[in-house]
Amino acid sequence: MKWYIIAGEASGDLHGSNLMRGLYAKDPECDIRFWGGSLMDSVYKEHQSGNGLVEDYKAGAVMGFSQIFLHLRKFAGRFGDCCKDIVAWNPDAVVLIDYPGFNFRVAEFAHKRGFKVFYYIAPKVWASRESRVKKLKAWVDKLFIVFPFEKEYFSRKGVSFIYKGNPLIDAIDSSPALSEDRETFFSRSGIPDRPFISLLAGSRGGEISFMMPVMMDFADRLRAIPAYSGYHFIIAGAPSRSMDDYLPYIKGREGYVHVVFGEAYAVMRHSEAAVINSGTASLEACLIGTPQVVGYGSHSFNYTIAKHILKVDFISLGNLILGKKAFRELLQYYFTPENLVMEVRRLIEDEEYRSGMLADYARIRDALGSKGASEAVAKAMIEEIEKPS
After folding, report:
1. Least enclosed by CB within 10 Å: which of 26, 30, 46, 105?
2. What is the pTM of this model?
3. Sheet strands side by side (includes 329-331)
């Protein structure tokens, strides 16, 4: 079978790579062409020769409504190129992974051209822009969801879906970082073995420019407290960024602020606590077992729009899955160095608070199901294609 997969962000690259492993396991002779990143490309090269990567997701990453307006012409060009490539490739199915701003347009095009369309990692229509449910019904043959709370929602909306659990369980449990000891991590990374706070500022330029100044002020303030004077801070660099994206913020702090790339799981696992930009990394921290505080903010224009269209009580997936606050979310004006210092100190010093959070993490993991989700989804996709018309 021939597959055309589109992932537009770092999380999509992760899920896409695991889905590709599942497809190759269930259909070793399958042929895949994709938009994604290094993780998907690595899986492709393990199983196929040549070049299946059409475009790296880094080329299209933007954050917020204002940046989207500025990139409309670029989006239009990428969309046109994508459509032409799909027609030329003539796949058995087009698989869209999250990334709704781009992928809904592709879904419409592919459906109208007669291609089977699968949507994997549902767009968060339960949080905002519920009007997109009509598009899912009109243009998507099968939706593959990954969160248990989505089952009731999409059933109520009459959207045909398949749920096989969450692929992050596989990604984390199979990661070497989960079995590596602390000494090995520090030796390999060349970072001094000190108690540290992990910092995950997001993958987009807008996220980094909002999060990093606050994070660095927080680092300075925490170290000014005698009990924390020996603490270090490790930034888990986003795979789509380079050291140049972080250097302006850590200048003068090189002795106690470090940046590592490709080590997010290890950094979170060995840290005392984490400050995390909302997104997939926050759910990963739940599954790894890292006490956390989530921060989110944007330019005032973006935040004002988002505040009026969001329909959920929480922005973090872990809190949404649990249906209550397992960890604190500091949004926009509440995301300050002072609030971070207070919350991180509580995470470290208040054993009852920390233990309660970890107990909630266990409930979140239980809700996400067992291992094998990616391969189960791949099998289900193949079965959908093989169904008689």
Report:
1. 46
2. 0.87
3. 257-261, 232-237, 196-200, 273-277, 292-296, 329-331
Can you tell me the distance from the alpha carbon of 199 to that of 187, in angstroms, rounded to the nearest whole number?
A: 20
To 5 degrees, how large is the angle CA 277–CA 281–CA 286? 115
Strands (E), 168-252: 196-200, 232-237
250 and 259 Cβ atoms separated by less than 8 Å: yes
Q: Which two tokens stand for residue 84?
A: 């032409």
Residues 222 and 320 in one domain: yes
Can you say whether residue 201 is alpha, beta or left, with left for phi > 0 and alpha for psi between -120 and 50 degrees? alpha
Instruction: Supply the DSSP string of 130-185, one letter for each residue.
Output: TTHHHHHHHH-SEEEE--THHHHHHHHHT--EEE---THHHHHHT-GGGT--HHHH
Quote the tokens at residue 309: 């269209």
Q: How many domains does the chain have?
A: 2
pLDDT tens track for 114-173: 999 999 999 888 877 888 999 999 999 999 999 999 999 999 999 999 999 999 999 999
**For residue 111, what is the domain's CATH number?**
3.40.50.2000
Same domain, 153 and 196: no
Q: What are φ and ψ of residue 312, in 5° steps?
A: -115, 160
39 and 99 together in one domain: yes
The DSSP call for residue 236 is E
Question: Which residue range forms the structural domain that includes residue 241?
Answer: 173-367
Q: Phi/psi at 92 (nearest 5 deg)?
A: -75, -30
Q: How far apart are CA 236 and CA 258, in angstroms?
A: 9
Pair 27, 75 in one domain? yes
